[in-house]
Amino acid sequence: MTSPxxxxxxxxxxRRLRHSGWIRELSGExxxxxxxxxWSMIVHDGEDAKVPVxxxxxxxxxxxDEAAKAARRARDLGIPAIAIFPHIDPSRxxxxxxxxxxxxxxxxxxxxxxxxxxxxxxxxxxxALDPFTIHGHDGVVDEAGYVRNDDTVELLRQQAVVQAExxxxxxxxxDMMDGRVGAIRTALEEGGFSNTMILSYAAKxxxxxxxxxxxxxxxxxxxxxxxxxxxxNPANSDEALREVAMDIAEGADLVMxxxxxPYLDIIRRVSETFAVPTIAFQVSGEYAQIKxxxxxGWIDEERVMMETLLCFKRAGAAGVITYFAEAAAQILNx
Length: 334
Ligand code: PBG
Description:
It is built from eleven helices and ten strands. By secondary structure, it is an alpha/beta fold. The chain has one domain: Aldolase class I (TIM Barrel), CATH 3.20.20.70. The protein is globular, with a radius of gyration of 20 Å. The two termini are 39 Å apart. Ligand PBG binds at residues 126, 128, 130, 138, 174-175, 210, 213-214, 227, 283-284.
């Protein structure tokens, strides 16, 4: 890199700016605040207040009452929004994920409970069928196991309207079907939900880092095959820009890059190229890695957690969805 300034030793000693805490703070380029954090939360339709998730130590599936209480804690901690993900009783799953369209289902019930408890906190809902299908795919599959695009989009637009009706502030299609953002935007406008925002999982990669999540929502054992015919190839970067450009044109208000840390280069390119808020998702496998190494005493969990969250800001993210939300916000509030 060529610099417009002469930076020669000893006129320049870069360590001067690192000498003491106060000057490191003063000259810091980026900062993390609770308002940058979105709480990733797993909710379930059972009686138990909390059910631990084996592959995500420290994380529980919450029932409806606990989710409402958590919304109040989010408000008190200055966390602006919660993203909810459902674990439903397997008996409610079917071939087309029809439970996703149930107006009295788990997600609409949780949305209402959270909005009653803490209306100031934004509620973000995943639009995808995988928590509701017996095969664990994000859409409807044909005989060959291929996820059918346009048939899936038709269901997703209905699912998004159900969520908006229940009071969701943001619907977040995570399915990677082509054309779903436009279809959802049209359905929301027609349904009178012109202020409901769309956060599109625009650049979502076919990643091994989602493993613990599939365990958390109970789709891991169900999933037949992988999601490589709809999620992006980890080898690609230019393709992410095409995905984001299309989603913005179709009406996305915010866009997401997912997973998080291994894809900071994509966050950088997207946030620099498009003048639209870019959200990073620190996914379940990233959480599990940090937790596991921390539990073994191999890394300082708290320090690595805060470092990774700051790195998302440095890369250009407007906010980060994370399972560490409550822990990190507590530290920032202290
Ligand atoms: C599925 C969905 C996934 C996640 C959010 N929505 C998993 C997948 O695509 O298989 C992953 C979240 C995480 O790993 O934390 N629509």
